[in-house]
Each structure stands twice: as structure tokens, then as C-alpha cells.
Amino acid sequence: MTTQNDQRHQQRQQKIKQQVDERIAAATQDRGLLLILTGNGKGKSTAAFGTVARAVGHGQQAAVIQFIKGTWECGERNLLSQHGVEFQVMSTGFTWETQNKASDTLAAQEVWQHGKRMLSNALLDLVVLDELTYMITYGYVELEEVIQALQDRPQGQTVIITGRGCHRALIEMADTVSELRPVKHAFDQGLQARQGIDW
Ligand code: ATP
Ligand code: MG
């Protein structure tokens, strides 16, 4: 009985291995990706910064734009900026609280200039545009300009965009898109945001 089960298991595994090998052999393109992390669930920025850590761990160069000025300092920024990762954070204006269109646009434009610089720097293997989606939704940064900068970027450069409600044009352009779905969130049960977990 056991040997028959073992055999069947082995056959299944061989088949899976064969399928995986075929798919690996078919993946011949080598270029940077456009990766989008969107949806209402928690984990978009965490995953983007995790990828920065992964890249830096391989000796690669990464840079980050944070389009939302958080009220708290950012744990990943504290760590990763010590490892040569340039961070540009929206200095004034847009936070989750303030909504002054003129000053928000100015602040978004200012930090977007750094984004454009990063997207034209061939020395950067990875660029994270954290919370960019909201800038497009509110019209603080033009969609066409973002698309142009993404199209013109160095061939080997990977870009990660995070934020809820990502524009369809960017989703279509992307190579990998993950949508995070909120199955549950502690905040809804009255739990406070926690240092080291939420920021
Ligand atoms: P994180 O930075 O934890 O990966 P995120 O980038 O997916 O979260 P954002 O929409 O950028 O999510 O939210 C920023 C803050 O709101 C974070 O502190 C996050 O923990 C919290 N948050 C994320 N999703 C939810 C949710 N569904 N309900 C309440 N708070 C949330
Ligand atoms: Mg986020």
C-alpha cells in the first residue's frame, strides 16, 4: 500500500517538476519589472520595503519616494537609509489629514522631480514610488508624465508602485500586480496602530 502511494506521489512530483522546468525554460526575458501593490488590505508598503531590503541584501542600489508624509517616523527609512538607500519624502502638504490642493500639488511636484531623476538613473536597480496612486487620483501628478517616465526608464530598472485604487493604465502596463484584500484589520476591532508593525 505504502509503496503504491509513494510511487503515485513520486509521479505527481515528477510531473510538477517537469511543468515548472518548462516554465523556467520559457522565461527568457531579462529586464526590470513594473510591480504594483494595490488594494485595501494591509501590506503594500511593507512588501515594497521588504523588496528594497531583498535588493540591498544582494548589493543592489535602491531608492524610495514616499508620496505621503506620515505623522510618525518610518522604521524602514531609519534602517534602509543607513544602507545607502536614498529616501525622498514629501516635505509639507499632503498627509492623510490635510487637503489643501495648492500646497499639496506643490509638495507632490517637488518630490516627483526626485522621482523622475531616480527613474532616469541607470545605477538604480530598484525604485519604489510609495503611495503614488493617490497623487494620480487627486491630480497632483499627471498620469501621462508617470507613464512616460516609466517607459523611458533604464532597461534593467525595476519599479514598485504602491497605493489603493491604482489607475487602470498603470495596471495594464505592469508586469506583476498584486491586490491586497482586507480579510480583517485590527483597527476595525479598536486596536491602535503599532510602532514596528504599522510604521
Ligand atoms: P503597510 O504600510 O502596513 O504595509 P499599506 O501600505 O498596505 O500598509 P496604506 O493604505 O498605505 O496600507 O495604509 C497606511 C497605514 O494604514 C498603515 O499604518 C497600515 O497599517 C494601515 N492600514 C492598512 N490597511 C488598513 C485597513 N484595511 N484598515 C485600517 N488601517 C489600515
Ligand atoms: Mg502604504
TrEMBL record:
It catalyses: 2 cob(II)alamin + reduced [electron-transfer flavoprotein] + 2 ATP = 2 adenosylcob(III)alamin + 2 triphosphate + oxidized [electron-transfer flavoprotein] + 3 H(+); 2 cob(II)yrinate a,c diamide + reduced [electron-transfer flavoprotein] + 2 ATP = 2 adenosylcob(III)yrinate a,c-diamide + 2 triphosphate + oxidized [electron-transfer flavoprotein] + 3 H(+). GO terms for biological process: cobalamin biosynthetic process; porphyrin-containing compound biosynthetic process. Keywords: ATP-binding, Cobalamin biosynthesis, Cytoplasm, Nucleotide-binding, Porphyrin biosynthesis, Transferase. Its EC number is 2.5.1.17. Residues 2-24 form the Cob(I)alamin adenosyltransferase N-terminal domain. NCBIfam families: cobA, PRK05986.1. PANTHER family: CORRINOID ADENOSYLTRANSFERASE. Belongs to the Cob(I)alamin adenosyltransferase family. Required for both de novo synthesis of the corrin ring for the assimilation of exogenous corrinoids. Participates in the adenosylation of a variety of incomplete and complete corrinoids. This is Corrinoid adenosyltransferase. It comes from Limnobaculum zhutongyuii.
